[in-house]
């Protein structure tokens, strides 16, 4: 009987951690990933690779580190004379794609880890969920295959992908035509090239609550800051960037669009810190609303090129009112940072529709909130941020009620980890076997009938069916 009780407790506790926390929003809205598929927990690298690759609806739980490193190869490439990998803490460049120009010196043999250049393929209908901050993929990135859609990656760390070698691998790439993509509470570090990159056919995605950690001793800019942060240059790119933490990165954080290609970006409530280079880089055709972000010790909040793009808008004023039901949020730039350009053509904001983020916050609150909540270990650990104050004019603009943070729809879609999960109903009651209490818990404390909230210990209470075998076994 004792063993049965322990097994039931373990199974029930695990079930509450087996679903996506929160609801996809912004340009990633509609992503459900593996939905209600029975979760699978890979135990080997080969198993993980198999589960990821097809289009079968799956919830994939990562509760350990999957280490793909250890097999080396060598190939020709080059080194930059002014920022040398051999002497100045730079990066090697594998192959010949980056080897033109007088500043490059040929290198006949560069040793690299064989896993990095070939990412793990990800098909449609996947929830890839890190469990308890333990889901780590080391040595390989993830590649959402061309045309794949409905993918959620949450609570996963991607790290150590040939950090000293450009073209040694990307953290996450989207091969094109990808829609309903949500990347939330992940961490990217020690990657040879891009943390995140979308290729030429474009994607529609939301990146939220992620940490982009650029600390490195092999930098393309020889300043201990990772350069190749994020690049979205495809056709009709549509990205929401919300409450991400960018630090110690020196460039392309992010790079938005390319000349002559139409794309849309909403960057809100992101925190940029300790950057010896540039954050935003934008090109003709990029329509970017940059609002409510905070910059601390950032040499260039945007590049000079971005400053010349009229649709790179960081001071939208009332242009958001008719769309989001609130004024556009002001950004915060501290005295140790460079200037953030404002842009002048905000008409495109009307085309963002009702894609506002849930619970937007004022820039003055962004640093504290983002540092406390971004990354895998913070998933499910906090409550909703206090919403930004709305002006009378913004409050009276009600053409987009679904986007207001005071509505039930916004509350249901919140990006704050513990505000609402898929284990809670729209009425605010937790589902059977979901957590309903415990020290530090901020979620629903009532249960859907016929379940009731049962205290297991000071840290954990759970919704249990009053007539269930489980409850009888507990003697409650």
UniProtKB/TrEMBL annotation:
<dbReference type="GO" id="GO:0030570">
    <property type="term" value="F:pectate lyase activity"/>
</dbReference>
<keyword id="KW-0119">Carbohydrate metabolism</keyword>
<keyword id="KW-0325">Glycoprotein</keyword>
<dbReference type="InterPro" id="IPR011050">
    <property type="entry name" value="Pectin_lyase_fold/virulence"/>
</dbReference>
<feature type="signal peptide">
    <location>
        <begin position="1"/>
        <end position="17"/>
    </location>
</feature>
<dbReference type="GO" id="GO:0000272">
    <property type="term" value="P:polysaccharide catabolic process"/>
</dbReference>
<keyword id="KW-0732">Signal</keyword>
<dbReference type="GO" id="GO:0030248">
    <property type="term" value="F:cellulose binding"/>
</dbReference>
<dbReference type="Pfam" id="PF00734">
    <property type="entry name" value="CBM_1"/>
</dbReference>
<comment type="similarity">
    <text>Belongs to the polysaccharide lyase 1 family.</text>
</comment>
<keyword id="KW-0964">Secreted</keyword>
<protein>
    <recommendedName>
        <fullName>pectin lyase</fullName>
        <ecNumber>4.2.2.10</ecNumber>
    </recommendedName>
</protein>
<feature type="domain" description="CBM1">
    <location>
        <begin position="428"/>
        <end position="464"/>
    </location>
</feature>
<dbReference type="InterPro" id="IPR000254">
    <property type="entry name" value="CBD"/>
</dbReference>
<dbReference type="InterPro" id="IPR002022">
    <property type="entry name" value="Pec_lyase"/>
</dbReference>
<comment type="function">
    <text>Pectinolytic enzymes consist of four classes of enzymes: pectin lyase, polygalacturonase, pectin methylesterase and rhamnogalacturonase. Among pectinolytic enzymes, pectin lyase is the most important in depolymerization of pectin, since it cleaves internal glycosidic bonds of highly methylated pectins.</text>
</comment>
<dbReference type="InterPro" id="IPR035971">
    <property type="entry name" value="CBD_sf"/>
</dbReference>
<dbReference type="InterPro" id="IPR012334">
    <property type="entry name" value="Pectin_lyas_fold"/>
</dbReference>
<keyword id="KW-1015">Disulfide bond</keyword>
<keyword id="KW-0624">Polysaccharide degradation</keyword>
<dbReference type="GO" id="GO:0005576">
    <property type="term" value="C:extracellular region"/>
</dbReference>
<dbReference type="GO" id="GO:0047490">
    <property type="term" value="F:pectin lyase activity"/>
</dbReference>
<dbReference type="InterPro" id="IPR045032">
    <property type="entry name" value="PEL"/>
</dbReference>
<keyword id="KW-0456">Lyase</keyword>
<dbReference type="Pfam" id="PF00544">
    <property type="entry name" value="Pectate_lyase_4"/>
</dbReference>
């Amino acid at each position: 009987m004792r063993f049965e009780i322990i097994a039931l407790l373990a199974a029930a506790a695990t079930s509450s951690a087996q679903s996506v926390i929160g609801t996809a929003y912004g340009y990633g809205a509609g992503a459900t990933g593996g939905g209600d598929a029975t979760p699978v927990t890979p135990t080997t690298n080969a198993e993980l690779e198999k589960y990821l690759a097809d289009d079968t609806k799956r919830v994939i739980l990562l509760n350990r580190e999957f280490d793909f490193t250890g097999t080396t190869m060598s190939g020709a490439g080059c080194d930059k004379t002014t920022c040398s990998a051999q002497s100045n803490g730079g990066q090697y460049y594998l192959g010949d794609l980056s080897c033109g120009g007088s500043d490059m010196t040929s290198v006949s043999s560069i040793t690299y880890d064989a896993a990095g250049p070939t990412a793990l393929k990800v098909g449609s209908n996947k929830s890839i969920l890190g469990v308890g901050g333990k889901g780590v993929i080391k040595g390989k990135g993830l590649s959402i295959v061309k045309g794949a859609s409905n993918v959620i990656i949450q609570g996963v760390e991607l790290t150590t992908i040939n950090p000293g070698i450009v073209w040694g691998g990307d953290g996450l790439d989207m091969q094109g035509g990808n829609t309903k993509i949500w990347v939330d509470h992940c961490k990217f570090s020690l990657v040879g090239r891009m943390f995140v990159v979308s290729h030429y056919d474009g994607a529609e995605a939301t990146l939220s609550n992620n940490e982009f950690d650029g600390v490195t001793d092999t930098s393309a800019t020889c300043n201990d800051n990772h350069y190749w942060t994020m690049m979205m240059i495809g056709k009709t790119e549509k990205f929401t960037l919300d409450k991400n933490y960018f630090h110690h990165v020196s460039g392309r954080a992010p790079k938005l669009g390319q000349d002559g290609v139409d794309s849309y970006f909403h960057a809100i409530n992101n925190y940029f810190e300790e950057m010896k280079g540039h954050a935003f880089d934008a090109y003709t055709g990029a329509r970017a609303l940059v609002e409510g972000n905070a910059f601390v010790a950032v040499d260039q909040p945007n590049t000079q090129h971005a400053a010349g793009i009229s649709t790179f808008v960081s001071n939208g004023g009332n242009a958001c009112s008719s769309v989001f039901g609130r004024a556009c949020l002001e950004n915060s730039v501290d005295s140790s940072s460079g200037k953030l350009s404002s842009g002048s053509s905000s008409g495109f904001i009307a085309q963002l529709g009702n894609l506002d983020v849930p619970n937007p916050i004022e820039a003055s609150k962004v640093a504290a909130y983002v540092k406390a909540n971004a990354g895998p270990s913070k998933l499910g650990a906090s409550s909703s941020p206090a919403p930004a104050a709305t002006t009378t004019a913004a409050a009276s603009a009600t053409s987009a009620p679904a986007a207001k943070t005071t509505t039930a729809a916004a509350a249901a879609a919140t990006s704050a980890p513990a505000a609402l999960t898929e284990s809670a109903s729209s009425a605010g009651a937790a589902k059977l076997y979901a957590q309903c209490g415990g020290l530090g818990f901020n979620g629903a404390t009532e249960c859907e009938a016929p379940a009731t909230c049962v205290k297991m210990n000071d840290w954990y209470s759970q919704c249990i069916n009053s007539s269930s075998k489980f409850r009888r076994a507990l003697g409650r």
